[in-house]
Amino acid sequence: MSTLRIAILGAGGRMGRTLIQAVQQAEHQLSSAVVEPSSSLIGSDAGEMVGIGKLNVAIVDNIQAALACSDVVIDFTAPSATEQHLKACRDAGVPIVIGTTGLNDAQKQLLDDVSKDIAVVYAANYSVGVNVSIKLLELAAKAFGDSVDIEIVEAHHRHKVDAPSGTALMMGEAVADTLGRDLKQVAVYGREGHTGARDRQTIGFETIRGGDIVGEHTVMFIGEGERVEVKHMATSRMNFASGAVRAAAWVTQQKAGRYDMIDVLGL
Known about the structure:
Layout: E1 5-9, H1 14-25, E2 29-34, H2 46-50, E3 59-60, H3 63-68, E4 72-75, H4 79-92, E5 96-98, H5 105-114, E6 119-122, H6 128-144, E7 149-156, H7 166-179, H8 183-186, E8 187-189, E9 203-209, E10 215-222, E11 227-234, H9 238-251, E12 257-259, H10 261-265
Parallel strand pairs: 1-2, 1-4, 2-3, 4-5, 5-6, 6-12, 7-9, 8-9
Antiparallel strand pairs: 7-10, 10-11
């Protein structure tokens, strides 16, 4: 079987650098490392950038050139950049794995539109542990029903720009869907002042930002006299990167459509 050629978009970022390492660890081929046109990294070697030695893969800003030599791309960038990457991948017929968070409704609709022509994996979190947690949350929500209050607390490093995290929202959506609720209608983002008594139908979110926290998520099912917590703590970005590379290998074998990490894991 030929080596899978993977392009990393947003290669200069925290996740991009970890993804380059994950590609090498999985013994795939890093076909291209793409950054934004203003980056000072352009022209340098991708392997040397992440400290794993020379890979003879120059960092570039041309996504079309990257697509021409790649079987699949992994995109952990920003919503506006991901829009353009989706369109470019559709034009080139190259499947894409997306980990960008903070997409708006129009951008999510673009995911659906593009997935009619190519295979797209989109997940807020590629950690195997997080996706196992999602299944546990669905089980807990089904068992408790409307008998408990549900709160979600998430913590990330000080550089994260969106809140709540995409993973927290993914967890909230899993719980809300299981309970037959619309998360957009029942989500409460933080509380301040005289809020009145809690409405049991709501799902609360609290956000913490500080230091170098990689990612922590706790979902609490709070009843009278007992509380159940489903908690996931990440101590390394490699968990996310390894999962995304696993998704990249999987998606190259799929027909056009929109998938998530639950599909990749067969859960």
